[in-house]
Amino acid sequence: MSKEINNREEVSVVVPVYNRERIVADTLDSIKGQTYRPLHLILVDNNSSDSSLDVLNIWKAGNEEDGFKVTVVSELTSGAAAARNRGLREVSTDKLVFFDSDDVMGSEMIECGMDVFARHPDVMFVYWRHERECLGGGVRRSHFTTADKMECHLVHALLNTPSYLVRTDYVRKIGGWDEDARVWDDFELGVRMLLPAVKSVGIDSVLYTVRSQEESITGTEFTSRAGQWEKVLDKIERNIAASDAEDKERMLRIVDYRRIILAAHYAKEGSTKLSEELKTSVLSKKLKTSVLSEELKKGALTDNRLSRFQKVLLKFAYTYTRHGGRGAWLLLRHFL
Predict the structure, then answer these.
(1) pLDDT in tens, 231-241
(2) Within 13 Å of residue 321, how many CA atoms lie on the same side as its CB?
């Protein structure tokens, strides 16, 4: 190992892999192509039924070198969250990146993140933009902000899985990945990362590319996993309600907005009953869960957080989205 590499801090990269035998090599090549060293790449095969595990071991044998260590492990419990937690247990470095097995790193992604840590040693995580290659063609840049990060995350999933370099102890402190979440697990973890008042720094640059796949773990539609999306939103709601955040009531209204948009997607897919049930539960609901009830008793929340006008706005967002509209949040954000 060169003197320069030996004097730098090692960073871990955790990648869960499930049935990616055809495309995972491109992802791994992009990680090896990072300008930053030393790196510890931790690959977690998640019960693949194809030859992904063999591909990982062959790639390790041909690419491991000084400053670039590769570990291949298996996780029998299905689900990306379980695989990421398995990889997390292998991490011995102070900082890490979680990455997906079908995405591609820009060559300076980790270098840029570590440069920020060098200038701001008190930050917990550094985050950045990405671009998405859409299934129908075209490229879309992710939403980004350094202002109201929680709003951006709740609406646009600011902290997408590979969108940040984070202190390992911080991920462990907030509980790691929720293995019960079979969809939106990065969305849920991102909320827990943002709820404590810790320092983070954003880089307004595209540092990796998401390659959309029809066989995506979370799929390309919502109806087939009905109930799972709602379960994640319910957990996020409980975590927000139990937090010390000053603007928690607005955060909860944004969660209701996400429920309304989900209901609109159900309707677009022809799942009218699912759509109507979810929409009605949002527009008529009072806060009923035990955590929310405790917050009501303390006066930290009001019983019905949506005003009549805000309910009208959510009805508009539902109709607008159901008929193919995009970006309803831009029209509503100053009123919720």
Answers:
(1) 999 999 999 99
(2) 26
